[in-house]
């Protein structure tokens, strides 16, 4: 019988049998899959689990703090948080091409993760949030957009000194099953039902060159948009919503003064499979409120636009 409770029982037993007394390392990303693996392994093997959370500086508003609050403080999971913002920003300096940015972020992510994991000299296993659709996808062609940590380690890119076995408890599950298990394991539902977030993070939502100043502005704008969607009960009605930073300046007026600041685009889509998508027809009053809040509350942004492009021909992300 498929109930989340039964599946959890079954999976924890299998994990215990697989790893025995050994130690396991897991890369937590803040996403649903790795979070559920974290909660599951904590239940199965407790202190034998160490998580590594790489803060790339390209995450959403307070995302790192939330991961630490949920796992470390609340659940008592051992989590190593690596502040790698400066390294990522440095590596991205002067880089404007989207695919080049993806390659740099992906490569550096694996490098930083491996450095940390390599310090855990007693780790024998690497846990991953691979789910059934990932298994199918990597059997076919690689799109280059798959989660880098998964694809990297799956193809055996681990350093020679670190011969870790793989623990992939979610390999046979679909996303909705993973979510149900996450809820059953006690993860907050805002985490379990969060919109997808691309591996390269804000790196592909800041058009062109990535700078800290831009990332900070974008985080604030994105947070306002998401907060208002939740307030109006619209968050769960759209499949994915986010803000995009446009590094162009536009004139505005505020009080007696003239502003000449950056532009933000809001994107919200409805989709089943993310292969095609319709732009969400959000209420004008709602968009009006979000736009006013962003421009009034964030010095540095003088204009907000709403993206009315479907996929195809446009993609969901801007880069
Ligand atoms: P596009 O922009 O291709 O996005 O219409 C479709 C879905 O994929 C996500 N996406 C990514 N996910 N790494 C990821 O892990 C990436 O490089 C990447 N690019 C796009 C996007 O957020 C959407 O959900």
TrEMBL record:
GO molecular function: ATP binding; GMP synthase activity
Domain (GMPS ATP-PPase) ranges: 2-194
Residue window of the full protein shown: 207 to 525 of 525
The gene coding this protein: guaA
EC number: 6.3.5.2
Domain of life where this protein originates: Bacteria
Name of the protein this chain belongs to: GMP synthase [glutamine-hydrolyzing]
Alphabetical keyword list: ATP-binding, Glutamine amidotransferase, GMP biosynthesis, Ligase, Nucleotide-binding, Purine biosynthesis
Catalytic activity as recorded in UniProt: XMP + L-glutamine + ATP + H2O = GMP + L-glutamate + AMP + diphosphate + 2 H(+)
Pathway: Purine metabolism; GMP biosynthesis; GMP from XMP (L-Gln route): step 1/1
Naturally occurring in which organism (per UniProt): Ectothiorhodospira mobilis
Quaternary structure note: Homodimer.
GO-annotated cellular components: cytosol
Role played: Catalyzes the synthesis of GMP from XMP.
Ligand binding (ATP): 29-35
């Amino acid at each position: 019988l498929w109930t989340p409770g039964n599946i959890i029982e079954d999976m924890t037993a299998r994990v215990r049998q697989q790893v025995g007394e050994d130690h396991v390392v897991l890369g937590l990303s803040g996403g649903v899959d790795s979070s559920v693996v974290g909660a599951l392994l904590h239940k199965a093997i407790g202190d034998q689990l160490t998580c590594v959370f790489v803060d790339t500086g390209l995450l959403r508003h307070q995302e790192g703090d939330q991961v630490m609050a949920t796992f470390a403080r609340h659940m008592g999971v051992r989590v190593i948080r690596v502040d790698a913002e400066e390294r990522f920003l440095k590596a991205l300096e002067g880089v404007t091409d989207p695919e080049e940015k993806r390659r740099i972020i992906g490569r550096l992510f694996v490098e930083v993760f491996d450095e940390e994991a390599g310090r855990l000299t007693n780790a024998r296993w690497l846990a991953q949030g691979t789910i059934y659709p990932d298994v199918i996808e990597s059997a076919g062609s690689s799109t280059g957009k798959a989660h880098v940590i998964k694809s990297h380690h799956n193809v055996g890119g681990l350093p020679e000194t670190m011969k870790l076995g793989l623990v992939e408890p979610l390999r046979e599950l679909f996303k909705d099953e993973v979510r149900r298990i996450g809820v059953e394991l006690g993860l907050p539902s805002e985490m379990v039902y969060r919109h997808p977030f691309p591996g390269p993070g804000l790196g592909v939502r800041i058009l062109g060159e990535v700078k800290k100043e831009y990332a900070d502005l974008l985080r604030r704008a994105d947070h306002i948009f998401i907060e208002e969607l939740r307030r109006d009960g619209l968050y769960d009605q759209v499949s994915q919503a986010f803000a995009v930073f446009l590094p162009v300046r536009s004139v505005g007026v505020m009080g007696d003064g003239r502003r000449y600041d950056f532009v933000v685009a809001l994107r919200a889509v409805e989709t089943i499979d993310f292969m095609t998508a319709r732009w969400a027809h959000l209420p004008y009053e709602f968009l009006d409120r979000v736009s006013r809040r962003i421009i009034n509350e964030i010095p540095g942004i003088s204009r907000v636009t709403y993206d009315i492009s479907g996929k195809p021909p446009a993609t969901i992300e801007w880069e």
